[in-house]
Amino acid sequence: DIVMTQGVLPNPVPSGESASITCRSSKSLVYKDGKTYLNWFLQRPGQSPQLLTYWMSTRASGVSDRFSGSGSGTYFTLKISRVRAEDAGVYYCQQVREYPRTFGGGTKLELK
Amino acid sequence: EVQLQQSGAELGKPGTSVKLSCKVSGYNIRNTYMHWVNQRPGKGLEWIGRIDPANGNTIYAEKFKSKATLTADTSSNTAYMQLSQLKSDDTAIYFCAMRNWDYWGQGVMVTVSS
Q1: Distance between CA atoms of B88 and A102, rounded to whole angstroms?
Q2: Which of A40, A55, A101 to mutate to test the interface with B (most CBs of B within 10 A)?
Q3: What percent of chain B has pLDDT over 90?
Q4: What is the mean pLDDT of chain B?
Q5: Is there a cis peptide before residue B53, judged by omega within 30 degrees of 0?
Q6: What is the pLDDT, as a whole number, of residue A11?
Q7: Which pLDDT does position A13 carry in this prediction?
Q8: What is the C-alpha separation between B71 and B41, in angstroms, rounded?
Q9: Chain B residues with beta carbon closer than 8 angstroms to that of A99
Q10: Helix, strand, coil shares, percent, chain A, to 5
Q11: Contact B56, B29 (CB under 8 A)
Q12: CB A74 within 8 A of CB A92
């Protein structure tokens, strides 16, 4: 199974600042079509997860352009610009390169 | 508008089974995979498996192969997950998700207790 490992944020993050969340996979998530099969989600307290980006860097419908995904085949970053109160929650990366689908352990973002 | 409506909270005794439902409106489930994910109290997300409602094909995470059974009824546009031989560590919130993870149910709490 592909193991996903997420970093920790130095919380709390001041409102208006940027935050970068990291994720590493134990195997390359680049498929033969050239796409990188990595999703990012935000789970706000008491809510279902929300898809933020897919194919590593493509924003899901309706997601603010303050969220941007980047990375290589095994190391990924989700950058949140101008952090706002509504961005608080737990962020998860997920690989969809192969089965079983696996998630990172989550990174909590708290705001000051 | 696409919506996934999951069934209500369940309280099950150890050794019994529960069957959860995920009813979809606004989208034909034949055109997507349906995934199931759990989240134990205070923990992260864990993938259980997925079903292709168009043909019933399923894939499970190894640890759930004897725990979960995924089915789908295309006539009612509803996906199901049965959890068998319940144990205390099956206590969790269970989510359904579809369309490349863009749509999720609200989650259902399953509590296993005698």
Answers
A1: 23
A2: A101
A3: 100
A4: 97
A5: no
A6: 84
A7: 95
A8: 26
A9: 59
A10: 5, 45, 55
A11: no
A12: no
The partner residues of B104 in beta bridges, in order of sequence, read: B97
Alpha-carbon distances of A21 from A50, A59, A85, B44, B99, rounded to whole Å: 16, 16, 17, 16, 25
DSSP A65-84: TTEEEEE-SSEEEEEE-S--
Quote the longest CA-to-CA distance of chain A: 43
What is the separation, in whole angstroms, between the first and last Cα of chain A?
37
Which parts of chain B sit beneath pLDDT 50?
A: none
Spatial contact of B94 and B87, defined as CB atoms under 8 Å apart: no
Task: Show the tokens assigned to B73.
Answer: 């009824």
Q: How many CB atoms lie within 10 A of CB B87?
A: 12
Residues of B with CB under 8 A from a CB of A: 35, 44-47, 50, 59-62, 95, 97, 100-102, 104-107
A41, A48, A101 ranked by CB distance to B107: nearest: A48
